[in-house]
Design a protein that fits this description.
Radius of gyration: 25 Å
Bound molecules: adenosine-5'-triphosphate
Largest sheet: 5 strands, parallel
Protein name: Fis family transcriptional regulator
Structural class: alpha/beta
Organism: Mizugakiibacter sediminis
Keywords: ATP-binding, DNA-binding, Nucleotide-binding, Transcription, Transcription regulation
Number of helices: 19
CATH class of the largest domain: Alpha Beta
Distance between the termini: 34 Å
Number of domains: 4
Strand order of the largest sheet: 2-1-3-4-5
Strand content: 5-15%
Number of strands: 16
Pfam family, one: Sigma54_activat
CATH topology of the largest domain: Rossmann fold
GO molecular function, one term: sequence-specific DNA binding
């Protein structure tokens, strides 16, 4: 899909539940691309962003995970939410309140396709009003660039967090921009003229963690010939960024908790509490909830850090951002090194769009910079980016690639129809579950979408 294009996108409807086939067909005829999403699936939120849906319908029955729906609706106010709700459910105050406060409209079964079509049209129109010119504008939040809805939502969240001077926890895969988000928070805040001190907790030698973070007094230990100011104290008046917070040893976690609670630290070997005014932004790419459950991360520290949370979406979830960022990095490289390279061939754009970017924005930046060095002419090709030519661009379209692509589409369609339940999908395709898992792996289909109670 084009970077700028609401028009280019079909009208996608995220359907949390299972639309009946007749309804599905009727909506498809009316121009809707209906994507069924398992409301209990791990990546329900990612899917809304991934399919670029601006309208969602949630089926409410006794099984519906209310908290999850609440969370989705509050995280995605730009989506217009509709409900298909069983009369029994509507009698429940929690369901009624959720629909009253967060939903555009609701229906009780039987669902009338004409009525639904009208409501969807209105909801779509309302969603468009939230976008300038009906198209997503690129955001550039102090060097943090993107045009996807995920980036718009993130920028909004960062702006909200700027004036609230409490700790922030940034989560997300490697290379998604966690440190950049922390720097942006700092630069936009009243602390901008103070220091920004970044520490990679995972890279500190275990023995030195306490002294690095909190400093030490002269003679505190054998090598402590002079007093040393710790990194947190060095951030006085500014922001301290604690990367890989999950790697902090338990002892240092206790001291950090104390700092977060009363704003004081104690240098190693010192007995005086020292007041330090620094905002803590912590980042992790590991699951801290799991670390808490396993006892390697303090629960009280986790709750203290988790007040304001920023989740950095993976590049795969940022519809439209790859091309925009690629140009952004190429322009920056040209300004710095004055290369003759001006842009990307269509094949390069297609190859970038098809690639899953496991290293996220950092990988994209590195590939573009390398390509800018390697390219001889004005345009970067897939070969310069060291990416495979996208299937459609292969000089000779082979029978094997056609088979592959048909197989992938079939698995994906079947998984969606089975609400990402692997057993159900295996039954429908008349293969074993192991085969379904193998094919998911082969075609790079996210296994997290498949129901977790359903291992191979
Ligand atoms: N939205 C963006 N716009 C422009 N540059 C970006 C964006 N996101 C990330 N970058 C750049 O990508 C690189 C990687 O970002 P960053 O170091 O912040 O990621 P990270 O999530 O902290 O990575 P890690 O988990 O590996 O430490 C940096 O050079 C950063 O400036």
């Amino acid at each position: 899909m084009g970077v700028q294009g609401l028009e280019a996108s079909t009208r996608s409807l995220a359907w949390f539940g299972t639309p009946d086939p007749q309804m599905h067909r009727a909506l498809a005829q009316a121009g809707w691309r209906v994507v069924a999403i398992d409301p209990c699936g791990d990546d329900a939120a990612a899917m809304i962003r991934g399919i670029d849906a601006w309208v969602a319908l949630v089926e409410f029955d006794a099984e519906t995970p209310l908290r999850l729906v609440e969370q989705l609706a509050s995280q995605h106010p730009e989506v217009q939410w509709l409900a298909l709700v069983q009369p029994d459910e509507l009698a429940k105050p929690a369901v009624r309140d959720l629909i009253r406060f967060a939903f555009f409209d609701y229906f009780t079964p039987p669902l009338d396709v004409g009525q639904l079509g009208l409501a969807l049209g209105h909801a779509w129109g309302k969603a468009r009003l939230g976008r300038v010119d009906g198209a997503p504008k690129a955001v550039d939040l102090d060097g943090m660039v993107g045009a996807s809805r995920a980036m718009h939502a993130l920028a909004l969240r960062i702006r909200k967090f700027v004036p609230v001077d409490v700790a922030v926890l940034v989560t997300g895969e490697t290379g998604t921009g966690k440190e950049l988000a922390a720097r942006t928070l700092h630069r936009l805040s009243a602390r901008a003229s103070g220091p920004f001190v970044a520490i990679n907790c995972g890279a500190l030698p275990e023995k030195l963690v306490q002294s690095e973070l909190f400093g030490h007094e002269r003679g505190a230990f054998t090598d402590a010939a002079t007093r040393k100011i710790g990194r947190i104290e060095a951030a006085h008046g500014g922001t301290v960024f604690l990367d890989e917070i999950g790697d902090l040893p338990l002892e240092a976690q206790a001291n950090l908790l104390r700092f977060l609670q009363d704003g004081t630290i104690e240098r190693v070997g010192g007995h005086q509490p020292i007041r330090v005014d620094a905002r803590v932004v912590a980042a992790t790419h590991v699951d801290l909830e799991r670390a808490v459950a396993e006892g390697s991360f303090r629960e009280d520290l986790y709750y203290r850090l988790n007040v304001l949370r920023l989740h950095m979406p993976s590049l795969r979830e940022r519809n439209g951002d790859v091309e925009l960022l690629a140009h952004h990095f190429l322009d920056a490289f040209r300004r710095e090194h004055g290369t003759r390279v001006r842009g990307f061939t269509q094949a390069a754009k297609d190859a970038m769009a098809a690639y899953p970017w496991p290293g996220n924005v950092r990988e994209l930046m590195n590939r573009v910079r390398r390509a800018a060095v390697m390219a001889d002419g004005p345009l970067i090709t897939p070969a310069h980016l060291e990416l495979a030519e996208p299937d459609g661009m292969l000089p000779a379209f082979s029978l094997e690639s056609a088979r592959d692509s048909a197989e992938r589409d079939m698995i994906l369609d079947c998984l969606r129809e089975s609400r990402f339940n692997v057993s159900e999908c295996a039954r429908r395709l008349k293969v074993s579950r192991v085969t379904v898992y193998r094919l998911c792996k082969k075609h790079g289909l996210a296994r997290s979408r498949t129901s977790s109670a359903d291992g191979p």
